[in-house]
Structures are given as structure tokens and as C-alpha cells.
Amino acid sequence: VQVVESGGGLVQPGGSLRLSCAASGFAISSYAMSWHRQTPGKGRDLVAHIASSDGSTLYADSVKGRFTISRDNAENTVYLQMNSLKPEDTGVYYCNAWKSPVAGIEYDYWGQGTQVTVSS
């Protein structure tokens, strides 16, 4: 089981990036998928979430209207399109896959993270 993020980098304010989260060893179609951001001295905060059941989405207030989460179950990949980037979007972005525990077995997978730096 593996979750691998990619697509991070250095971008100027106002620019765009597209993060990818490729899963292997399990099918994301039955998992809620989400992106989280961690900055130095802070915890890991939810940025965007997409449900497994109906594909409904939710976003942190700080990214609404600028970020879009999507999933391609056929490719077993989740994306985060980030537009109009701001310096405060800087951080390490982590992908998470989660579904309800079954018979005491946890299904909660994290990737290694990808660094996003927004700076001029």
C-alpha cells in the first residue's frame, strides 16, 4: 500500500500548481481522499476533501475559489489544482486516503508529502 504525492515546487505569487496523489495497493474508489498542509510550528491542516460516495467536496475557507480537488478512480489518482497562489499557501502538502475501520482494521494512509513554496 502506497500513496505518493508529486507536483510541488517553487512558484511566484499568483501562479498555479497541480499536485498529484497516486495510490497503489488499494483502490481509491472506496476511500475518502483529502489534501492537508503542514507549516513549521503548526499542525497538519485540512485543505480539501472529496468523498468516495458522491464525489462531494469541501475546502478550507482560505482556499475556497482558488483550489480544486478531483479524483480519477480509473487512474487511482487524486489531484489538487491550485490557482492564484499566495505566500501563505506555502507548506508541505500531504495526501490522505481514509475509509471506516472494518473489524478493527484501520484504513488510513498518508503519503510522504510534497513541498510547495510560494515566493517572489
Give a quick set of tags describing it:
120 residues, mainly beta, seven-stranded mixed beta sheet, four-stranded antiparallel beta sheet, 0% helix
Structure description:
The chain has strands spanning about 1-5, 10, 15-25, 30-40, 45-50, 55-60, 65-70, 75-80, 90-100, 105-110, 115-120. The strands form two sheets. Strands 2, 4, 5, 6, 9, 10 and 11 form a seven-stranded mixed sheet that branches. A four-stranded antiparallel sheet has the order 1-3-8-7, with no helix packed on it. Helices cover about 0% and strands about 55% of the residues. The N and C termini lie far apart (about 35 Å). The chain contains no helices and eleven strands. With about 120 residues, it is an all-beta fold. The mean pLDDT is about 95. It is globular, with a radius of gyration of 14 Å. Strand 5 (about 45-50) and strand 6 form a beta hairpin.
What structural class do you assign from the helix and strand content?
A: mainly beta
Helix count from the secondary structure assignment:
0
Mean of the pLDDT scores?
96
Q: How can the largest sheet be summarized?
A: 7 strands, mixed
Radius of gyration: 14 Å
State the low-pLDDT regions, or none.
none
Shape: globular
Question: Which percent bin holds the helix content?
Answer: under 10%
Number of strands: 11
Beginning-to-end CA distance, first to last residue: 37 Å
The SSE order reads EEEEEEEEEEE
State which percent range the strand residues make up: over 45%
